[in-house]
Sequence to fold (217 residues):
Amino acid sequence: MKFFIDSADIEKISALNEIGLVDGVTTNPSIIAKSGLDFKNVIREICELVEGPVSAEVVATDAEQMIIEGRELRKIADNVCVKLPLTMDGLKACNQFSKEGIPTNVTLCFSPNQALLAAKVGATYISPFIGRLDDITLDGMDLISDIRMIYDNYGFETEILAASIRNVNHVKQCALAGADVMTAPPDVVEKLSTHPLTDKGLSAFLKDWKKTGQTIL
Ligand code: E4P
Fold:
Protein backbone atom coordinates (compact mmCIF):
# COMPACT_ATOMS: atom_id res chain seq x y z
CA MET A 1 0.00 0.00 0.00
CA LYS A 2 1.38 3.38 -1.00
CA PHE A 3 1.55 6.13 1.62
CA PHE A 4 0.47 9.64 0.67
CA ILE A 5 0.69 12.47 3.20
CA ASP A 6 -2.47 14.55 3.56
CA SER A 7 -0.86 17.86 4.41
CA ALA A 8 0.82 21.04 3.18
CA ASP A 9 3.28 21.08 6.07
CA ILE A 10 6.66 21.10 4.29
CA GLU A 11 8.70 20.27 7.39
CA LYS A 12 6.59 17.27 8.32
CA ILE A 13 6.42 15.99 4.73
CA SER A 14 10.19 16.40 4.46
CA ALA A 15 10.87 14.51 7.71
CA LEU A 16 8.71 11.55 6.65
CA ASN A 17 10.19 11.66 3.15
CA GLU A 18 13.70 11.26 4.56
CA ILE A 19 12.55 8.09 6.32
CA GLY A 20 11.19 6.80 3.00
CA LEU A 21 7.53 6.91 3.93
CA VAL A 22 6.23 9.35 1.34
CA ASP A 23 4.95 7.99 -1.97
CA GLY A 24 2.94 11.14 -2.69
CA VAL A 25 1.04 14.04 -1.13
CA THR A 26 -2.58 15.14 -1.14
CA THR A 27 -3.94 18.59 -0.39
CA ASN A 28 -7.37 20.16 -0.51
CA PRO A 29 -8.61 23.77 -0.30
CA SER A 30 -9.18 23.44 3.48
CA ILE A 31 -5.61 22.19 4.06
CA ILE A 32 -4.26 25.09 1.98
CA ALA A 33 -6.43 27.62 3.87
CA LYS A 34 -5.28 26.19 7.22
CA SER A 35 -1.61 26.40 6.18
CA GLY A 36 -1.94 30.11 5.41
CA LEU A 37 0.47 29.55 2.49
CA ASP A 38 0.25 30.59 -1.15
CA PHE A 39 -1.38 27.67 -3.03
CA LYS A 40 0.83 27.51 -6.11
CA ASN A 41 4.03 28.17 -4.15
CA VAL A 42 3.40 25.45 -1.63
CA ILE A 43 2.42 22.93 -4.32
CA ARG A 44 5.65 23.81 -6.18
CA GLU A 45 7.70 23.31 -3.03
CA ILE A 46 6.08 19.95 -2.25
CA CYS A 47 6.55 18.82 -5.87
CA GLU A 48 10.26 19.58 -5.63
CA LEU A 49 10.50 17.69 -2.36
CA VAL A 50 8.72 14.46 -3.29
CA GLU A 51 8.99 12.37 -6.43
CA GLY A 52 5.46 10.99 -6.35
CA PRO A 53 2.14 12.58 -7.31
CA VAL A 54 1.02 15.72 -5.49
CA SER A 55 -2.74 16.30 -5.60
CA ALA A 56 -3.80 19.92 -6.12
CA GLU A 57 -7.53 20.58 -6.22
CA VAL A 58 -9.47 22.75 -8.66
CA VAL A 59 -12.06 25.11 -7.17
CA ALA A 60 -14.23 25.75 -10.25
CA THR A 61 -17.57 23.96 -10.36
CA ASP A 62 -18.12 23.72 -14.12
CA ALA A 63 -16.16 21.33 -16.30
CA GLU A 64 -14.70 23.92 -18.69
CA GLN A 65 -13.26 26.03 -15.87
CA MET A 66 -12.05 22.91 -14.05
CA ILE A 67 -10.10 21.96 -17.17
CA ILE A 68 -8.59 25.45 -17.40
CA GLU A 69 -7.64 25.40 -13.71
CA GLY A 70 -6.28 21.86 -13.95
CA ARG A 71 -4.06 22.83 -16.88
CA GLU A 72 -2.80 25.83 -14.88
CA LEU A 73 -1.98 23.58 -11.93
CA ARG A 74 -0.15 21.15 -14.22
CA LYS A 75 2.17 24.00 -15.26
CA ILE A 76 3.58 24.02 -11.70
CA ALA A 77 5.29 20.61 -12.03
CA ASP A 78 5.08 17.31 -13.88
CA ASN A 79 4.07 15.45 -10.71
CA VAL A 80 0.96 17.55 -10.09
CA CYS A 81 -2.12 15.33 -10.01
CA VAL A 82 -5.31 17.27 -10.75
CA LYS A 83 -7.86 16.77 -7.99
CA LEU A 84 -11.49 17.02 -9.09
CA PRO A 85 -14.74 16.77 -7.11
CA LEU A 86 -17.05 13.84 -7.76
CA THR A 87 -19.75 15.75 -9.63
CA MET A 88 -20.92 15.32 -13.22
CA ASP A 89 -18.74 18.31 -14.15
CA GLY A 90 -15.80 16.83 -12.28
CA LEU A 91 -16.29 13.54 -14.14
CA LYS A 92 -16.44 15.38 -17.47
CA ALA A 93 -13.18 17.17 -16.70
CA CYS A 94 -11.67 13.87 -15.55
CA ASN A 95 -12.63 12.22 -18.83
CA GLN A 96 -10.88 15.01 -20.75
CA PHE A 97 -7.71 14.81 -18.64
CA SER A 98 -7.74 11.04 -18.97
CA LYS A 99 -7.74 11.32 -22.78
CA GLU A 100 -4.75 13.69 -22.49
CA GLY A 101 -2.86 11.36 -20.14
CA ILE A 102 -3.04 13.87 -17.25
CA PRO A 103 -3.22 12.17 -13.82
CA THR A 104 -6.38 12.81 -11.81
CA ASN A 105 -7.62 12.25 -8.28
CA VAL A 106 -11.41 12.24 -8.05
CA THR A 107 -12.29 13.31 -4.54
CA LEU A 108 -15.23 13.45 -2.13
CA CYS A 109 -16.36 9.91 -2.95
CA PHE A 110 -18.92 8.52 -0.52
CA SER A 111 -20.54 5.65 -2.43
CA PRO A 112 -19.53 2.63 -4.53
CA ASN A 113 -21.55 3.97 -7.47
CA GLN A 114 -19.60 7.24 -7.41
CA ALA A 115 -16.39 5.21 -7.49
CA LEU A 116 -17.73 3.21 -10.44
CA LEU A 117 -18.33 6.44 -12.38
CA ALA A 118 -14.82 7.71 -11.63
CA ALA A 119 -13.31 4.47 -12.93
CA LYS A 120 -15.42 4.63 -16.09
CA VAL A 121 -14.06 8.07 -16.96
CA GLY A 122 -10.48 6.91 -16.38
CA ALA A 123 -9.60 8.51 -13.04
CA THR A 124 -6.07 7.70 -11.91
CA TYR A 125 -7.19 7.71 -8.26
CA ILE A 126 -10.55 7.61 -6.51
CA SER A 127 -10.62 9.10 -3.01
CA PRO A 128 -13.27 7.49 -0.77
CA PHE A 129 -13.55 9.44 2.51
CA ILE A 130 -13.57 7.04 5.46
CA GLY A 131 -13.58 9.39 8.45
CA ARG A 132 -16.39 11.58 7.20
CA LEU A 133 -18.63 8.49 6.77
CA ASP A 134 -17.69 7.33 10.29
CA ASP A 135 -18.61 10.84 11.49
CA ILE A 136 -22.22 10.27 10.38
CA THR A 137 -22.27 6.78 11.99
CA LEU A 138 -21.76 4.84 8.73
CA ASP A 139 -18.87 2.40 8.30
CA GLY A 140 -16.35 4.10 6.04
CA MET A 141 -14.34 0.92 5.68
CA ASP A 142 -17.26 -0.90 4.00
CA LEU A 143 -16.89 1.60 1.18
CA ILE A 144 -13.26 0.62 0.61
CA SER A 145 -14.15 -3.10 0.50
CA ASP A 146 -17.09 -2.51 -1.87
CA ILE A 147 -15.01 -0.44 -4.28
CA ARG A 148 -12.21 -3.06 -4.17
CA MET A 149 -14.67 -5.75 -5.19
CA ILE A 150 -16.24 -3.67 -7.96
CA TYR A 151 -12.89 -2.63 -9.43
CA ASP A 152 -11.57 -6.19 -9.28
CA ASN A 153 -14.77 -7.59 -10.87
CA TYR A 154 -14.15 -5.51 -13.98
CA GLY A 155 -10.39 -4.97 -13.94
CA PHE A 156 -10.62 -1.19 -13.55
CA GLU A 157 -7.14 0.32 -13.18
CA THR A 158 -8.22 3.31 -11.11
CA GLU A 159 -6.35 3.15 -7.80
CA ILE A 160 -8.28 3.26 -4.54
CA LEU A 161 -6.82 6.13 -2.50
CA ALA A 162 -8.35 5.78 0.96
CA ALA A 163 -8.78 9.30 2.35
CA SER A 164 -10.13 11.06 5.43
CA ILE A 165 -8.06 8.72 7.57
CA ARG A 166 -8.16 9.77 11.19
CA ASN A 167 -6.36 7.04 13.16
CA VAL A 168 -3.95 4.12 12.95
CA ASN A 169 -6.76 1.58 12.97
CA HIS A 170 -8.07 3.08 9.73
CA VAL A 171 -4.64 2.45 8.17
CA LYS A 172 -4.63 -1.22 9.19
CA GLN A 173 -8.18 -1.73 7.95
CA CYS A 174 -7.35 -0.08 4.62
CA ALA A 175 -4.40 -2.42 4.16
CA LEU A 176 -6.59 -5.44 4.98
CA ALA A 177 -9.30 -4.25 2.57
CA GLY A 178 -6.76 -3.88 -0.26
CA ALA A 179 -6.68 -0.11 -0.74
CA ASP A 180 -3.93 0.75 -3.24
CA VAL A 181 -3.01 3.95 -1.43
CA MET A 182 -3.89 5.62 1.83
CA THR A 183 -3.48 9.31 2.58
CA ALA A 184 -3.18 10.38 6.18
CA PRO A 185 -2.04 13.40 8.20
CA PRO A 186 1.62 13.25 9.33
CA ASP A 187 0.74 12.54 12.98
CA VAL A 188 -1.20 9.40 12.04
CA VAL A 189 1.78 8.10 10.03
CA GLU A 190 4.14 8.88 12.93
CA LYS A 191 1.89 6.97 15.36
CA LEU A 192 2.06 3.83 13.18
CA SER A 193 5.55 3.08 14.50
CA THR A 194 4.69 3.22 18.18
CA HIS A 195 3.89 0.32 20.51
CA PRO A 196 4.34 0.28 24.31
CA LEU A 197 5.96 -3.18 24.14
CA THR A 198 8.54 -1.86 21.64
CA ASP A 199 9.46 0.91 24.09
CA LYS A 200 9.54 -1.49 27.04
CA GLY A 201 11.58 -4.10 25.17
CA LEU A 202 14.11 -1.57 23.89
CA SER A 203 14.58 -0.10 27.33
CA ALA A 204 15.26 -3.61 28.76
CA PHE A 205 17.71 -4.48 25.96
CA LEU A 206 19.68 -1.26 26.50
CA LYS A 207 19.77 -1.78 30.25
CA ASP A 208 21.11 -5.34 29.85
CA TRP A 209 23.62 -4.23 27.21
CA LYS A 210 25.04 -1.67 29.61
CA LYS A 211 25.72 -4.50 32.09
CA THR A 212 28.01 -6.22 29.56
CA GLY A 213 30.36 -3.20 29.54
CA GLN A 214 30.87 -3.72 25.79
CA THR A 215 30.68 -1.26 22.88
CA ILE A 216 30.00 -1.95 19.22
CA LEU A 217 32.30 0.74 17.82
C1 E4P B 1 -8.04 13.66 0.93
O1 E4P B 1 -7.64 13.85 -0.18
C2 E4P B 1 -8.62 14.70 1.77
O2 E4P B 1 -7.82 15.83 1.63
C3 E4P B 1 -8.64 14.36 3.23
O3 E4P B 1 -8.26 13.03 3.46
C4 E4P B 1 -9.88 14.76 3.95
O4 E4P B 1 -9.77 14.40 5.30
P1 E4P B 1 -10.75 14.96 6.43
O5 E4P B 1 -12.08 14.32 6.25
O6 E4P B 1 -10.09 14.56 7.72
O7 E4P B 1 -10.81 16.44 6.25
In short: The two ends are 37 Å apart (CA to CA). Residues 6, 26, 28, 107, 127, 129, 131-132, 163-164, 183 surround erythose-4-phosphate (CB under 6 Å).
